[in-house]
Amino acid sequence: MNILRNARITARAENYAAFVFDFAEHTVPQPLSPLKLEATGSASAAFLRKETIALPYYPKLLTQYKLKEIAGGGSVFDRALRIMSWLTENTQYCGMSMHRLRDNGAEILQWSAGRGFCHAINCRNKAFALADCLLALGISALPLMFIGGIRYKGKPGMGCHVMVHVYLPELGKWALLDPSANAWFGAENHPSDVVELREMLANEQFPKINGFTFMAGTAACLEAYKLCFLRPMQYIFAWESNSSGRMKATDRLQHYVLATQGESFMEFITKLYGKRSARKYNVLPIGAAELLSAK
């Protein structure tokens, strides 16, 4: 996509909506292969059980945005949903946002909170902002990135989206939240974690989607969201810790990817973009059991 077209898309909300509908009309996601559910036994998963690092700007988030008052009382799930709703009401989303921001919730909110669509933020920005707000409140939260193969107008490509895994001690499980769409998945007494959602999608099923406000929140928006944002979920990535995604986007970071029973991520990315591009990635496989055991 050229820079001029990108600028047109990010200038107005209706332009971005038109882009999404066009993308959905001409996109065919590739089939999802099953995950390797068992633990790999790899030491690479140890990061999932480390204590969260208290980043220096967490106190500023708490006081400047009154996060404790917004979160209120009740269960961790209720508090997390209130923070996500606040983020939805106070920031706008555009998947083609051109403004480069570090993975820093304070900087992301300073740029976007209470401002117009020209200050809209992308899915990665939304996810790190939500995760940082929750972590500042003492709620376990882990941004997760999803990458999958697609065909757009007959040509092979890659879809990408970022959400947040939140641990709910009252239920003893994780739940997946999508702050780009103000969405969560499944039933209130059993919200879906990323593995449950991924297994449903692999079986060509969609979960119940709650709180959905993506673009206009219409039935057409929901169908576009399912196709473009949920279905390309072949590879699921986690960052090394809550402090490791703070560098420039061009820096080579350690990622952990849930292993699949089919083509590996490195095989996929090499086939799509070549060995030179694949060398930018530094990934280690983990099993789904290891991701879900972290809390």
What does the model show?
The protein is α+β, with helices and mostly antiparallel strands. It has one domain. The protein contains 12 helices and 10 strands. Strands 1, 2, 3, 4, 5, 6, 7, 8, 9 and 10 form a 10-stranded mixed β-sheet that branches. Strand 3 (155-168) and strand 4 form a beta hairpin. The protein is globular, with a radius of gyration of 18 Å. The termini are far apart. 40% of the residues are buried. The model is unreliable at 1-5, 41-50 and 247-252 (pLDDT under 50).
**Whole-number radius of gyration?**
18 Å
Output the number of helix runs: 12
Low-confidence stretches: 1-5, 41-50, 247-252
Q: Based on Cα principal axes, name the global outline.
A: globular
Q: Could you give a short account of the major beta sheet?
A: 10 strands, mixed
Q: How helical, in percent, are the residues?
A: 25-40%
Indicate the mean pLDDT: 81
What layout of secondary structure does this protein have?
Elements: H1 3-11, H2 13-26, E1 27-29, H3 58-64, H4 67-71, H5 76-90, H6 105-112, H7 123-136, E2 141-152, E3 155-168, E4 173-178, E5 183-187, E6 190-191, H8 194-202, E7 209-210, H9 219-230, E8 235-239, E9 254-258, H10 265-273, H11 275-278, E10 282-286, H12 288-293
Question: Which characteristics define this entry?
Answer:
alpha+beta; 12 helices; 38% helix; 20% strand
